[in-house]
TrEMBL record:
<keyword id="KW-0378">Hydrolase</keyword>
<dbReference type="Pfam" id="PF00580">
    <property type="entry name" value="UvrD-helicase"/>
</dbReference>
<feature type="domain" description="UvrD-like helicase ATP-binding">
    <location>
        <begin position="84"/>
        <end position="260"/>
    </location>
</feature>
<dbReference type="InterPro" id="IPR000212">
    <property type="entry name" value="DNA_helicase_UvrD/REP"/>
</dbReference>
<keyword id="KW-0347">Helicase</keyword>
<dbReference type="GO" id="GO:0005524">
    <property type="term" value="F:ATP binding"/>
</dbReference>
<keyword id="KW-0547">Nucleotide-binding</keyword>
<protein>
    <recommendedName>
        <fullName>UvrD-like helicase ATP-binding domain-containing protein</fullName>
    </recommendedName>
</protein>
<dbReference type="GO" id="GO:0003677">
    <property type="term" value="F:DNA binding"/>
</dbReference>
<dbReference type="InterPro" id="IPR014016">
    <property type="entry name" value="UvrD-like_ATP-bd"/>
</dbReference>
<dbReference type="GO" id="GO:0005634">
    <property type="term" value="C:nucleus"/>
</dbReference>
<dbReference type="InterPro" id="IPR027417">
    <property type="entry name" value="P-loop_NTPase"/>
</dbReference>
<dbReference type="GO" id="GO:0016787">
    <property type="term" value="F:hydrolase activity"/>
</dbReference>
<dbReference type="GO" id="GO:0031297">
    <property type="term" value="P:replication fork processing"/>
</dbReference>
<dbReference type="GO" id="GO:0043138">
    <property type="term" value="F:3'-5' DNA helicase activity"/>
</dbReference>
<keyword id="KW-0067">ATP-binding</keyword>
<dbReference type="GO" id="GO:0000724">
    <property type="term" value="P:double-strand break repair via homologous recombination"/>
</dbReference>
């Protein structure tokens, strides 16, 4: 059953809406996947907390998008939940190797210097502007980091911004790819302090290592699933434990960086269970009506947002 521990389950359920109860009562058998599309203010965090409270004998991993959310979850979730960020997982297994040479992002000037050291005149003419090639190779690497590919490919070198397209004549895709491959090799080289490792690079290395999280956890709760990177979704869907993805497609803010919506991923198994949280407790029917007009008109939303609050 979903609940153990006598009356605790009933106490948990008494404070929830019917939609929230449906999520909490979801099957958490090994290999199951549940996707919850939750409008803002519909109590997704309290729902996940209740899910964990209702199963004290199960061990949960709650994946938060940032440190602030993780710390809040650590304080508010029951002790059978480990709250971590994805970067935290990646750093635990790979970060210690690069602790002395980490950066938030690659600096284009540093990359240009590294390319000047690494590439031959046969590949890059001596009069070429290496800063431009550096920017293009960084862009190609970003595309690679957000893919499920095992190595940089030509498609990543072709994933340029509109502004960068004009450099195609100077730097064809195979040249950009060569620069990106060189850059990635130097990033991974622990003895090379000329190019820093980034958190995005660490996360890519972690995903390629195919970590087995099922050995430690009975279920994984992915928050902000609408902004999950493809490699992360790939890692999670390879786990043997239960998965619960929760997010709001209308709050996706990282598509520009290559994030994808895990709730609608083509990789989801056929038997994925799709649920929704539509009752917003932050406002009443009048504001919900206005919000629905916008969501339906501009975003094609088919589920109505229900104002369950008092304002």
């Amino acid at each position: 059953g979903a609940f153990s521990g006598g009356g605790q389950g009933g106490t948990v359920l008494s404070r929830l809406s019917q939609e929230q109860i449906e999520v909490v009562m979801s099957s958490l058998e090994d290999g199951s996947v549940t996707c919850v599309s939750a409008f803002a203010g519909t109590g997704k965090t309290s729902t996940l907390r209740a899910l964990a409270l209702s199963r004290p004998s199960k061990k949960f991993l709650y994946l938060a998008f940032n440190v602030t959310v993780r710390d809040d979850a650590t304080r508010s979730f029951p002790p059978n939940v480990d709250a971590k960020t994805l970067h935290q997982l990646a750093f635990a297994t790979h970060g210690y190797r690069y602790a002395k040479n980490m950066a938030d992002q690659l600096r284009v000037t540093d990359v240009a210097t590294a390319l000047e050291q690494s590439l031959t005149e046969r590949v890059v003419p001596s009069d070429s502007r290496l800063v431009t090639l550096a920017a293009l190779s960084v862009r190609a690497l970003a595309s690679f980091f957000n893919s499920i590919d095992k190595a940089p490919e030509l498609a990543h070198a072709q994933a340029l911004s509109t502004e960068q397209q004009r450099h195609r004549a100077i730097y064809p895709a195979h040249v950009i790819l060569g620069a990106a491959e060189t850059l990635w090799a130097r990033m991974k080289d622990q003895e090379d302090d000329g190019v820093a490792m980034t958190m995005a690079g660490l996360l890519k290395m972690w995903s390629l290592s195919r970590p087995n999280l099922s050995r430690q956890y009975d279920a994984i709760l992915l928050d902000e699933a609408q902004d999950a990177a493809a490699p992360v979704v790939s890692v999670l869907l390879a786990q043997q434990c239960a998965l619960v993805f929760v997010g709001d497609p209308h709050q996706s803010i990282y598509r520009f960086a290559g994030a994808a919506d895990a709730l609608t991923s083509n990789s989801l198994p056929v038997r994925t269970r799709h649920l929704a949280l539509t009752h917003c407790f932050r406002f009443g029917p009048s504001i919900a009506h206005a919000a629905n007009l916008i969501l339906v008109t501009f975003k094609g939303e088919q589920r109505p947002l229900i104002g369950a609050g008092s304002h």
